[in-house]
Amino acid sequence: MIHRGPEGLSIPDQSLPDFLLARARELGERAAFVDGVTGRELSYGDFAHGVERVSAELARRSLRKGDVFALLAPNALEVPLAFQAVLHAGGTVTTINPLSTSAEIATQLADSKARFCLTTDALAEKALAAARGTGVEQIFTTGEHRSLVPFAALVSARPDPALRPRVDPREDVAALPYSSGTTGTQKGVMLTHRNLVANVLQLDTGLFRDHERLVCVLPMFHIYGITAILCIGLHRGATTVVLPRYELETLLETVQRWRVSFLHLVPPIVLELAKDPRAARFDLSSLHTVFSGAAPLGAELSREVGERLRCRVVQGYGMTEASPATHQTPPDPALAEHGTVGTPLPSTEARLVDPESGRDVRDGERGEVWVRGPQVMKGYLGRPDATRATIDADGWLRTGDVGVVNERGNLAIVDRVKELIKCKGFQVAPAELEALLLTHPALADAAVIGVPDRECGEVPKAFVVRRAPVEAAELLAFVAARVAPHKRLRAVEFRERIPKSPSGKILRRVLLAEERARGCGG
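The structure corresponding to this sequence follows.
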């Protein structure tokens, strides 16, 4: 059975920056972005002019249509400006987690064939080290590092419309975030201008109002931050207060000070808002909606935070490969249900498929979520086989998530076919950690699974077989020194052997079942 969102979505044939900045001049002095730490503001008029200036200067510095520009920075006002300017110049942006190691950054720079990079003074040495041996030719900084080009020089340049190439919204790739998809290797997700324009319009279903006040505390390198906060905020004339990192009291102070009306979060932060006594010390009465995404939010927690903050709590669902959103809580409160991610977005189709038989399941039965719509990616960069394995000949994107559609048509995500770990909304590929563990001389074998964690949703746990004496603490430190914080192991269990199939595939489901049995006291 195919579940369909509302039909009739009209997608303009425009580049993403042209679409988003159509109202910028009429909004003029209204603040588009505010630095939540310094109070520095960037108006819509200045943002639009900045996009044109940076775009022209990048063209003068030899950025050509299709060139890749890497953004390696924490949240800052320069990030959305650089993002839209690169697209305006016909380039493609790949976003990189600033907590990644130099080796991880180098891998993405090389795979994406990035020619340019924007970073910060604090990350300059890591960026310089990562860029060695890649195709990166110029590195810019939001600061004044002596070895890098100041981004301020781009913003003060002279605009020149003649330098701008024509963009084909249906074919030209705008964003190139990296995702593990339904397999364990990082791949560049090719999202076109049309993909992103479509998803902004799809998310604009009535939950979001004109001139909202937002907080961007979620990372701008994540597709959730890119589309659901930055892009839809620009589209609807919102003022977005930018915070460089998450800290509960800072977030609460920001909501109170700026009278924030719409708050984008992930489940671990929702949990803190529901449980932490500090939340009661702040005036959060300006909030009308909390939007949770990146991982499922349980019904009980959803109700609890809604009652505490006296606002509506809604969810969105999707994946990087879908720009990212495919489902959202219905705007009509009478149709919404806590613990579900709602119904398909406009011009989006969804099916639940039995992974074994390939047949559609009935409502109330579990099945893998398949989706189709204009927001689905063009494909994986340089990975046609992986693209074919993820999107079938009819355009259906296999999400790897297991869901149930109830009698009211709302989807609940209940499990995953894929074995990725979702830690604080970020993907962690077990295969990546297993490969790293096997480089340790004391280990003979390893398997990694995600185990439930109240704060993070899931955390990685390793099962290892020793070939020489080694303690768990040494292995935890070994991995922590080589990966980003969200990928770090939280536990190690020693085994005599790792369960495997006759073909040698790790049977992670066996380990997961054992872990669940322990959790139930079995």
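The chain has a mean pLDDT of 94.
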